[in-house]
User: Fold this.
Amino acid sequence: MFEISTDKNRLQIPTIHEFLTQTYWAKGRSKAAVEKTIANCFCFGVYLNNAQIGFARVATDYTVFAYLMDVFILPEHRGKGYSKKLMEAITTAPELQSCNTWLLKTADAHGLYKQFGYKALKAPEMVMERKPHKTP
Assistant:
């Protein structure tokens, strides 16, 4: 049975951590850091027969702003429409309906996100980022 849930108690942290540490965007992220990101975000788990096969999280104030992160479907389950079902669940979640500013960063999944209304920044000169220097 296929299911998407926002119940954090169902999230299988070892599966999430193992996958994320192999990605270009989260390489080296510690298990403690993964747990902290989950604790502080609105999370979506994707399950097939109760085994976690995907994940996404949204950093949000539940009113104005939503930032989509860590979206994935495990490689052996790709090509079956699960990522589209996950994105549909995220974009239609009642908790996020008042958010009128949505952002994400991706290097390789533009085609998926375009199907859900994402596009290049209309006014990139209005968006700034800060990358603080980390001390050892």
Summary: The chain has four helices and five strands. Residues 56 and 71 are 4 Å apart (CA to CA).
